[in-house]
Amino acid sequence: MPTEIEAKIKVPDLAAVRTTLQAAGATRIASELETNSFFDTPDRSLQSSDKGLRLRIAVDETGKSRCTVTMKGPLQKARFKTREETEFSADDSRQICGAGTKSRKSRALVVGKKPYGKFQISCVVIISGSLAGNRLSLRRRCSTVFP
Predict the structure, then answer these.
(1) 3-class SS of residue 2
(2) pLDDT at residue number 36
(3) Which band of pLDDT confidence, cut at 50, 70 and 90, is reported for residue 50?
(4) 3-state secondary structure (DSSP) of residue 95
């Protein structure tokens, strides 16, 4: 199962960070508006076991949407936010989005929309957005966890 390692950093000026990333050879891979919905059972069994089920719809600047379903495992003890994640996605969001959201045994707990810019250097994805202030999220997916 893939492991995601993530660090979130508040920065004073996202534009300066984007310029520095591009100068360092980062590739801009997306600019998207993401809508995230988290689901759980009525008794919140996922949340109580430190797990999560997320449905993400990302729409890029051309209007193309992509839907991703992610099952997040419990946080692991590590220096950075680390957890196992399993996900699948479809280019046509209607393939997934209509199917998993009609169950009477689950409900959306949190729904939020956020604009993001995504850059990539090697296997690290840098996500920039303004979410209660300027923040960067550095994510690396790998098959093993590093201390």
Answers:
(1) coil
(2) 86
(3) very high
(4) helix
